Amino acid sequence: MVSSAVFLALLIYRPVSVEERVEVLTLDYRFHLRNLILKPAQPQDTLIVAIDEKSLREFGRWPWNRELMAELVNGIIAMEPKILAVDIFFAEPESAKSDMALGEAFSRAGEKIVLAMTFDELVDASDESPEVPDQIIDSAFLKIENTTRMHPVIAEKALPVIQEIAQGRVFGHVNSHPDLDGKLRWEILYLAYGDEIFPSLALQAARVYLGVTQDEMVIAGDKGIRLGQEYFIPADRRGRLLINYYGKEGTFRFISAADILRKKIRPEEVNGRIVLLGTSAIATYDMKNTPFSANMPGVEKNATVIENILHHSLLRKSIGYVEIAVILLTGIMTGFFLPRLNALKGALLSFALFSGYVLAVQFLFTSMNLWVNFVYPAANIIMIAVAVTVAKYFFEERKSREIRAMFSSYVSPKIVETLISNPEKAKLGGDRKMVTVLFSDIKGFTSLSEKRPPEEVVEILNEYFKEMADIIFRWDGTLDKFVGDEIMAFWGAPADQPNHAELALRCALHMEDSLARMQDKWRREGKEMLDCGIGINTGEVIIGNIGAAGKKMDYTVIGDHVNLAARVEKLTRDYQAKILITEFTMEHIRTSDGTTMFGHYTLNERDTVKVKGRQREIKIFELKGLAHERSQTK
Q1: What DSSP designation does 88 have?
Q2: How many CB atoms lie within 10 A of CB 480?
Q3: Which of 91, 300, 365, 474 has the highest CB neighbour count under 10 A?
Q4: Is the pTM value of this prediction over 0.85?
Q5: At what angle do helices 321-337 and 343-368 cross, to 10 degrees?
């Protein structure tokens, strides 16, 4: 839960470096995916008259003479648009004649005109309260509710439009502030200057188009802006709206200013629509970097905001409840299930949670225009998955080393690998299991040790024990211990072996055959020869690590059936037999039709005996391999 707590804290604090460099990139991908799923139709109510490359070629370089601008404005107004929003600044005088001509063109249009104004030096706080120019004061908000939670962007300097053009006009600012990565994603719907708050050009144009009066445009605290009774525009406490871009540049219909001036446009193409007049030529330097493009004309950004407002296609940023629920839920699920699942299932669960959140985030954005934070919940899923995977890796590595160290001297490498792959089978605590136990003891070892030098005895013993241990491992047995000249081994643990009795018998035959070859070798070398007897029994035993904790522990089996195997081995001397097995082992190798599970041997009942420690007599059988099979190996 540490990871979840960290990402919850980040979600609440929302560091700018993450929000405006990482999270916003995921928002950009959501825009692109949305347009792949369902590309928005070209807006029909709003069009742009652009001073484009064609216009500059035909009418000269920018900026144009204001008499030419007046002719352009008159040409647009003559086609009777609903409003004309002019996204061009007129902050410096040109000449009395040209300035007056443009001012008169705007005056003839009357209330249809909304002009752009701009401010310089946007800040978060200011100690100064500059005087507001007379020509823009009537464009400020008249009603503001609950100012305590507002924290608007503040302008320290205004760049007013010259009086000849500004007289009686409605203004909206065109200031913007890109995110840290340079992309423009937010519209500053209002900003503060002096004691007043001014709307943006797009907001003012939407108000005029809707016929909403200035006093019906109300700032509702940190919630947003009301335009009359039907329109509410959500905004954050800084007065910003998340722009819902429809695509790259050219999404809106553009009309070249040259075509207006040349009278090549039919009036019905403009009549009743919102027209924005602005620049799109590269030389005019009014290009914006957006999620779709690095070269969107600023006038098209304003057209986008107007369309967002008029068609209620407004993006909203989640306040965090969805993200908190996802972080907590996925944190609990991954924290609980991943440690209990194997690597593949854990990876599938993590991928399912991550993919599910990706799809949910995109669905909310595409269908509900909701921007849900992606980075923190997704990173929490990944972080927990990686942490649990790494922890499991090191834990399983340590467990593997423990298993290898514990069993490598007991069992064959194949069994060790099986236990590492399935560590639950390597239960080290006490347990009851059905196993087959084999005891092998050297006959006449005492006389041998008395007749031969100790060095020779040890050399022969080591050669004998090595060969027998290799054979036990070859038949997947567990080598329990060497006790003097005695070998103890068993099958059926720690890994499950359904054919444990058969494996023990095959191992015994192999041991007998190998000892015969060793005897031939010792005879040729003039050494004393060893002979052995093997006793085998099958039954339920107690198995586990037994000994003094922290001092000496052995993985071994104990119980009545272990003792029985040892006593049967002693009987090999009395019956002059190499291998004796009990009736309990016989039952495990006999099939339902009375035959046994494997061939190439003889198995004869030798006697019914009573052994020490048991009330009931048991049958013993002698096992002999056929001569031509004695060289058989696994």
Answers
A1: -
A2: 21
A3: 300
A4: no
A5: 170
